[in-house]
């Protein structure tokens, strides 16, 4: 069971009953900032991975131009990602 209670204009309290009672208090401003920070980190991670994918795609394209092809085993695995 989980209960939520307003402590003041800026703070919410969450009480969870699992095998024991656990009570945490959260400042709303902290939660908003935490969400913003998490989303920013996620977006930066996705951007970095997209850059890496683009670099690998470029290398694959250049390899194919040079007549370099994957082995049959790698080719069947790669077909799921290419």
Short characterization:
With 82 residues, the chain is α+β, with helices and mostly antiparallel strands.
Helices and strands: which structural class? alpha+beta
Helical run tally = 2
Characterize the main sheet. 3 strands, antiparallel
Mean pLDDT: 88
Could you give the order of the helices and strands? EEEHH
Strand order of the largest sheet: 1-2-3
Per the principal axes of the C-alpha atoms, what is the gross shape?
elongated
In which range does the helix fraction lie? 40-55%
Q: Tally the beta strands.
A: 3
* Uncertain runs: none
Strand content is 25-35%
Gyration radius (Cα, Å) is 24 Å
- Tell me the span between the first and last alpha carbons: 46 Å
Assembly annotation: single chain
Structure description:
The chain has helices at residues 28-65, 72-78, and strands at residues 2-8, 11-17, 21-27. It is of the alpha+beta class. A 3-stranded antiparallel sheet has the order 1-2-3. It is elongated, with a radius of gyration of 24 Å. The mean pLDDT is 88.
Write the layout of secondary structure elements.
Blueprint (H helix, E strand, L loop, with lengths): L1 E7 L2 E7 L3 E7 H38 L6 H7 L4
Antiparallel strand pairs: 1-2, 2-3
Task: Spell out the key features of this protein.
82 residues, alpha+beta, 2 helices
């Amino acid at each position: 069971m989980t209960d939520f209670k307003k402590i003041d204009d800026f703070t919410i309290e969450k009480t969870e009953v699992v095998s024991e009672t656990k009570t945490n208090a959260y400042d709303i401003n902290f939660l908003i900032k935490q969400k913003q920070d998490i989303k920013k980190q996620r977006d930066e991670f996705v951007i970095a991975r997209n850059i890496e994918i683009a670099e690998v795609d470029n290398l694959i394209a250049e390899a194919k131009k040079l007549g370099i092809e994957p082995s049959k085993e790698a080719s069947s695995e790669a077909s799921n990602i290419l």
